[in-house]
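Predict the 3D structure for this chain.
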Amino acid sequence: FDAARGGSLLLDEIGELPRSAQAKLLRVLESGSYRPLGAIREKQADVRVLAATNRDLAQLCASGEFRLDLYYRLAVLRIELPPLRERRADIPGLVHRFLERARRPPEAVAPEAMGRLLAHAWPGNVRELRSVVERTLLRARGGAIDSFDLEEWGVAALPAAPPAADPCESVRVLVEHRGRLAAAAAALGVSPRTLQRRLRAGGLSARSLRRELALPARH
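Done. Predicted structure below.
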């Protein structure tokens, strides 16, 4: 909190924070003050707090691993980021960003290799993608990354990315669930955000469908 004064403090993997530290963090968030190690006076916190996790905090609260009061204190504005496999369009931009960090041109990835990167399931999400790119660059030794370079890291002989979902199917399921976005998304096996994107692809939205469902039936 002291080092981040006047800026932002990112608490990454907040779900791994021990219960003893959770109580201390809650105290700072509630009171807005903290006492640095060895100090006799408290200081006023002046930071924007961001917390990130890949775990279900609500489930951790139910099991007693995470404090419910801390969860509600942190969950003021929630941003849900879908897994990388559900936003494959971000992969080229991420790869180019990793290449920039390594001071390599965008052409450092051959088209066939980029195709394999786009088709991979990426269970480790962005961290796995970054690791694969960085390790493969070491093997490439100044040349372009090709499909052969990716085989050692398991990015090979993978099925192509699934075709874009039919918006009509999403609409059908949403109608069956009377416009309830969360229930329809669960039935389709996707996140609510993904379902919203599919509807927008067809020029629709859950809100507009709900309005239509509220109209009297026409014969």
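The CA atoms of residues 22 and 125 lie 27 Å apart.
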